[in-house]
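Quick one: structure tokens for this chain, please?
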Amino acid sequence: MEKTTQYLAGGGHLAAIAAVLQFVGSAIRFGPFSVSLVLIPIVLGAALYGWGMGCWLGLVFGAVVLLSGDAGLFLAADPGGTIVTVPSKGIACGAAAGLCCRWLHPRYPRLSILLSALAAPLTNTGVFLLGCPCTLVITGGLGHFVAPLCRREAVCDEDLLLRGLWKRCTANCPSADKP
């Protein structure tokens, strides 16, 4: 797409909206995670101006996440991996939304917007999960028979559920006996 004044001004406005929405969305929390309202301008920019603008807006999103402190927990655990993963997931999210619109819009205009709006958070979460190490935890039942059959490392803990329930039940009663 030719870089016109409308393209540059629209991208600048959407980048500013993305930054503001990231800061506002960081105030709405579910546990340690904040709501990602910033995907709305990323999808809009990708749909209106193409996948390149989606990548730019995703990079802005990643930079704001790093600078706002939302990635602080992950920066403490793995600074290098976080600095690479957070902008990468934003760029991939914008690219996925833009390419989805580009490929589907000529034939299915409404469906292309819907699928690009679905592709953005799925890509955002998927790239994030690729950057996180995972451990399989098997609890109770036949877990001690299943754990040796797993190809990857698996931790077998038969009492995990019971310890969690005990912790939950005794949270408001400090005088309860410890197991």
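The CA atoms of residues 101 and 114 lie 9 Å apart.
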